[in-house]
């Protein structure tokens, strides 16, 4: 790895109690360019803009995918990544689906560790604090030709993140728009999936909701995901989540919730969730909670479901009664080294710079 440290660190301007998530970037970034059929050297360089032309293929034809993951600092200042191999596997799955070159494990994991290590001072400490990390791959060839690009960039940038607390939200069950289709790119973390979701989300917001529960494109009769999260439904004391498929992103938080729930002896059923079953359970009183999970906020609980023009209120559970709250605490404690790690999910970042 080629390491070029910044001579103008901005760390003294960073106030961990007052910063904008997603708008504050750490001192460095990782970049690596792909040309002539191979990846070049991985470079750790000062964070900043890179020159590009509007004829860059990535912004014209959308060959771009990314990952979202976090690093956590415990009370002793030790830094951990959480299941980074899952993000490594997923970025390559996305790259393959978008006909982009896959990255090597070394590029991805060593790049991550080196970046987090050099900028460890930027990781805020304490409840809800973390460093949000964004690895991405995009097409960089300058060509207005609708074909696979011959040049790419792999990059990793990162922004400090705070409180994962989110108020319960109202979600509209989609009866027209879809996030993904059979044979499409729903299981890839393709940049275009997010672009396609913004307009339907804007419409849902105009109708008084915060998010959309995406349903299957063919019939709109089955739950798929919620906003940019995987979805869980609890009926009585059993929790349900749809199986992953080519339409559903295989979320790291989803998988972690399933394993944590099983460890607690909670019954988990990974099976299709018919919208009708959820509405009937709500009307009959057996629906206890519905929530979304993802890296950014861990859990968002839902307070109402929009269905066929009606806003149906969900029960309000206390944190003691809520499986969503219980499992969130299990996960956050594990991520922050406040509990045992029987699954081996934490990966310590220790002197990474010396070994790359
Ligand atoms: C569409 C979509 N589904 C699910 C998730 C949750 O995935 P993860 O738990 O790996 O963050 C995300 C978030 O990144 C997402 O964008």
Task: Describe the fold and architecture.
The chain is of the alpha+beta class. 25% of the residues lie in helices and 29% in strands. The chain has 8 helices and 19 strands. The protein has helices at 57-61, 84-97, 105-118, 191-206, 252-263, 275-284, 323-335, 352-355, and strands spanning 2-3, 28-35, 38-39, 43-46, 64-66, 69-73, 79-82, 130-139, 152-161, 169-173, 211-215, 223-226, 229-235, 238-241, 267-270, 287-294, 298-307, 310-313, 346-349. Helix 5 links the parallel strand 14 and strand 15 (267-270). Helix 5 (252-263) packs across helix 7 (323-335). The longest helix is centred in the middle third of the chain and has 16 residues, at 191-206. The model has no long low-confidence stretch (mean pLDDT 96). The structure holds pyridoxal-5'-phosphate. The site of pyridoxal-5'-phosphate has 12 residues, from strand 13 and helix 5.
